[in-house]
Amino acid sequence: MKHVFIVGGTSGIGYSLAQLYLEKGFVVGICSRDISKISDSQKSNFQVFQTNVSNYIQLHETIESFISKEKKIDIFINCAGCYTEDVADSISYQQAEEMLQTNVLGTVNAFEVARKIMKNQQSGKIAVIASVSGILDYENSSLYTKTKRAVIQIAKAYHRALKPFGISVITIAPGYVDTQKLRNLNANDLSKKPFLVDEKTATNIIFNAIENDKKFVIFPSKMKWLMLSLSVLPSALLNVIMFKKAKWMKSK
User: How sure is the predictor about 88, in pLDDT bands with cuts at 50, 70 and 90?
Assistant: First the structure.
């Protein structure tokens, strides 16, 4: 029986993936800072841990508990992420710190914990959820965009380092996915979210990417080509376009 562990697995894409892997017959472990997001009846289907991905020791102990019997993990997925808009609005130091801790340090922690176990196995898959916004590189991009760009670059480094040990690294860069979190952030109004993808479709795309060992997947395709087109523009022009886009999305 195969084992999958999902960081950030109590809500959104993470929980949707956990349900799908359970249906596929996997032993599924999930963790989150807030495990109250799922009910007791839902928890009974998984091995559930209250864990902060920003805390390496805590995450390591969690994974050790998950693999205590089988001493193996086939797939490790990091869905943890933190978002605060700082292009159209100012953000606090605490909000900035949380994004850096979760999106950047948490990504490194996840790779390191999974790497140590899978290196001994000489096999395994590590998947990380980045963002299509991380494709863009320009001076005044938001802190969120910069952290997600860092996630993509970190994953590339681990892909190269772990390939000789039979470990696959899969990076997923989704556009807008219709999750409850996205709805909460936008007062349930997603009218300004282009190329919106429903949660089930996103889950299936991610599952298939992991199953087929895809190195880097961007979806949906329309968002992929839009962002790739924008990425070739001069930084100064991209700054103006993206600032206006952020202001428009914040306007009523």
Answer: low
